[in-house]
Amino acid sequence: MVESDPVFERHRGGKMAIRSTVPLSSREDLSLAYTPGVAEVCRAIAESPGLAREYTWIGHTVAVVTDGSAVLGLGNIGPRAAMPVMEGKAVLFKEFGGVDAVPICLDTQDTDDIVAIVTALAPSFGGINLEDIAAPRCFEIERRLDEALAIPVFHDDQHGTAIVVLAALRNAATLLGRDLAALRVVVSGAGAAGSAVTRMLVVAGVRDVVVCDSRGVLGAERTDLIGEKAALAALTNPRRVAGGIADGLRGADVLIGVSGGTIDESAVAGMNPGGAIFALANPTPEVDPAVAARHAAVIGTGRSDLPNQINNVLAFPGVFRGALDAGAPRITAAMKLAAANAIASVVADAVSPDAVVPSPLDPRVAPAVAAAVAQAANENAETARNG
Known about the structure:
CATH topology of the largest domain: Rossmann fold
């Protein structure tokens, strides 16, 4: 019964609330926090809008925005059903990054509407975290918001996943004695996460990446590719592999699953032995961990009950904390690479097959990521000033 289920009990009444940060117990308190004192602050911000970061919550608050179209592995369940996930995201922001976050679930899946609404809401926040918006609309929404707003916009399903995957792969490559640039990597899934993972790996220097969707390898022979998939095909597959996932995996060192599908052991068996398999679909990985263990030395999943949980919570709280601290207008590739390196460095001295990434509960992670991201943002700003 729902009434006795501990999961439902944990969510009863929601998982978050607003509290005051100032006393409100006297007339003087009211006059300072509200009228008439508040008018002085309003006038100052009207004259110098940048003061809003200092004298309102904007400097430490982000909006967590979804349209409910791609929630977890549940699919297009709509804005109300998405709210428990958005609340969860918000409390993770606060717990791990000290960032306040407000869940905003929009009752529209029209790209123009979403861009217009978020643009109109943006003055109330220091950053926008896009969440659980289906591909390919998510690509255009993020791009347009990034162009329109002077605050960080971050689609976590894309970039949070990519950051943590790169961190895990860096440590796995070190553990296996492999050069990151020389790895043959197969990404199973060409949606939001698959696209961002692929682009992040290429930026990090991986030269041989093959991407597969449900119809097979993305390559020049595919006449059905448009938009982001066509762009991925042009960016990847230097050996011009063709065919299905088994063809892509033949001779591969690394498999990264972000598709939600199932990959047969016969396909996995074609990989080079002693590599890595990151099967990140939840709750059922693309490759069963027991099967993966027969063909790879390092195994990661998205599950909290197995080693090497490759989870976005390792990235997004620190990424936003660092971006907000630096006053960054956007989150750049350099900031994302810095975040991945910081995550990897947390366990670099104790890396093992069961620990190529830290635990999501490791208190060292978010501060390390925040410091690295802020430094990268400040270096970006310095380069822009001098260049």
